[in-house]
Amino acid sequence: MLWFTEYYKGEGMELQGTGLSMKVKSSKYLKTPYQELLLLETEDWGKVLVLDGAVQTTERDEFIYHEMISHPALFTFPRQVEKVLVIGGGDGGTVREVLKHQPKEVVMVEIDREVVEICKKEFPSISNGLGDERVKLTFGDGREFVKDKEAEFDLIIVDCSDPIGPSVVLYQEDFYRDCFKALKEDGIFVTQSESPFAQNRVHRQVVRELEKVFPIVRPYLVFIPTYPSGMWSFTIGSKKLDPLGVAPSALGKLYRELIEREGALKYYNPEVHYGAFAIPNFVYREE
Amino acid sequence: MLWFTEYYKGEGMELQGTGLSMKVKSSKYLKTPYQELLLLETEDWGKVLVLDGAVQTTERDEFIYHEMISHPALFTFPRQVEKVLVIGGGDGGTVREVLKHQPKEVVMVEIDREVVEICKKEFPSISNGLGDERVKLTFGDGREFVKDKEAEFDLIIVDCSDPIGPSVVLYQEDFYRDCFKALKEDGIFVTQSESPFAQNRVHRQVVRELEKVFPIVRPYLVFIPTYPSGMWSFTIGSKKLDPLGVAPSALGKLYRELIEREGALKYYNPEVHYGAFAIPNFVYREE
Fold first, then answer.
1. pLDDT exceeds cutoff 70 at B216
2. Nearest to A197 among B225, B279, B281 (CB)
3. Is the pLDDT of residue B251 over 90?
4. What is the pLDDT of residues B93-112, one digit of tens each?
5. How far apart are CA B22 and CA A20, in angstroms?
6. Pick from A15, A16, A223: which is nearest to B230 by CB?
7. Cα dist. B57→A11, A15, A95 in Å?
């Protein structure tokens, strides 16, 4: 009987004696130029991608992360979204969800080519959108990529790992400023923003840095069973459009159109759109 | 280095190869007449109570469970709540939260006297309400206790363990019918209703059984990091009052009055009150 345990650790992790264990049928280990990669076949979670010791993607619960990093921002637009930038997102799940909104172009900038290649082979149901002709896949540093962009994107999604290794720079104010500049005048930025329970200080710092840059900043919560504590967050930074300002009737119409065209979503719905922005008191308590 | 791992198992558990591990400083084991009890001192979670192998209560996250099993129902009453029945709830945390609404009387019926005695000694910050003069503590079978009650309680809270061992009968339609009868004409019932992710079938069955008995049935969700998958639910069954029908202005007023009198809550607030009832699609998907 083989078990994999992720012992929670790393920059900003407030749980230092806790771990999640999964029964494993088989495993494959390799080192990419950027990180350590472990591919597991598990009993409960299907195939699981682990980077630098942290579970990134499981076949069983990936729909939650990928729907919820994408749809709240995308459904906030009252108009057709044309050009979307995804930074990170090597498994392709975020691009899969973005494509459901029929953008003209999705640019994805992932630093680690090997992650994409493994996901194309091992997670076809997650990565299948990467072959779409509207998707421009670039390998490089997302931080550098946005630096010279101006008023180009409707939406920028930062689908990155924890603030260690290659992702550190994606948690900093300078990067958020460059993203602001790279967005159109009604553009929206969204980033994964860690666990408000297990990495409370990091989460709050992301929100604080975004508030220096964007006039509208809205953190929201989702259940991700295989991430530390299961309580996860994303944060939207927006120039004009407020995800909480969308009229329920307009959202309902857009939502019904999308699921008629693309099939059912498994997590996101209009009630979840509004409800996810309700934050328990302890997250922003005075310290 | 000592670690405790809860390997998820038992009636209705859909995760069969997953566990949560906690670093342990010391532990104490005993057998009560009803269950196996393990008391842990842990690095991250403070003291932890484990019954029949399942984590019940940790000092670090107990506030979430106890606030959220209590306040959504209690804040649904437009009037003073007079008499509350708590079934189970041996650690006393639910009673502590109920008392913040100044009821005249709280009856608690717990089957396992030893759990209460250990919690009084080991978890004083959780069990401190049990000594309040308004609290009538009875040891016995909650199922039997409600059978001959009629129109007596404003609110019945079922704070029980999983549907194995002594708690099985608390998941059945007959019990819900007796609770309906034991409630006043505008009474509310609330029960913990397992993880919609990890015990989806059990959760849905609780909701279905309650729908046979109560005209208004409202499941809602909370983040509980130390319970299987971290995604947990409670379900309200109500005769007349709808937790989603409370006017925001009225709720805001009641909430401010309570926190001025009792101090801040750590999880519940009016946004969370409404937001918790937003349920992701997969929970009630067609099978």
1. yes
2. B225
3. yes
4. 999 999 999 999 999 999 99
5. 9
6. A223
7. 28, 17, 40
Sign, Cα dihedral of A69, A75, A78, A82? positive
Segments of chain A with pLDDT less than 50? none
Confidence (pLDDT) at A286: 66
Does A52 count as an annotated binding residue? Answer: no
Helix pair angle (B173-182, B200-211), 10° resolution: 50
CA atoms within 13 A on the CB side of A269: 16
> A with B: how many residue pairs have Cβ under 8 Å apart?
135
Model pLDDT for residues B2-32, shown as the tens digit of each residue = 999 999 998 899 999 999 999 999 999 999 9
What interface predicted TM-score (ipTM) does this complex get? 0.96
Give, rounded to a whole angstrom, the gap between the first and last alpha carbons of chain A. 44
The reported pLDDT for the residue numbered A1 is: 75
The reported pLDDT for the residue numbered A134 is: 98
For testing contact with chain B, the best of A223, A224, A255, A256 (most B CBs within 10 A): A223
Residue B27: CB atoms within 10 A of its CB come to 14
Output the CA–CA distances (angstroms, integers) from residue A110 to A138, B133, B258, in the order listed: 6, 63, 49
Average pLDDT over residues B114-127: 97
* CA distance to partner chain B, nearest, from residue A271 (Å): 5
Contact B271 A278 (CB under 8 A): yes
Interchain contact, B225 vs A230, CB within 8 Å: yes
Closest residue in B to A1 (Cα–Cα) = B17
Q: Which two tokens stand for residue A17?
A: 């004696």
Among A9, A18, A267, pick the best mutation site for testing chain B contact (most B Cβ within 10 A). A18
What is residue A282's predicted lDDT score, i.e. its pLDDT?
Answer: 98
**DSSP letters along A123-183, please?**
-HHHHGGGGSTTEEEEES-HHHHHTT--S-EEEEEEE---SSGGGGGGGSHHHHHHHHHHE
- C-beta separation of B76 from B238 below 8 A: yes
pLDDT the model gives residue A285: 86
Domains of chain B: 2-57 (2.30.140.10), 62-284 (3.40.50.150)
- Mean of all residue pLDDT scores within chain B: 96
Query: Are B212 and B45 contacting, i.e. CB atoms less than 8 angstroms apart?
Result: no
Q: What angle do CA A220, A221, A222 make, to 5 degrees?
A: 140
Query: What is the average per-residue pLDDT within B24-41?
Result: 96
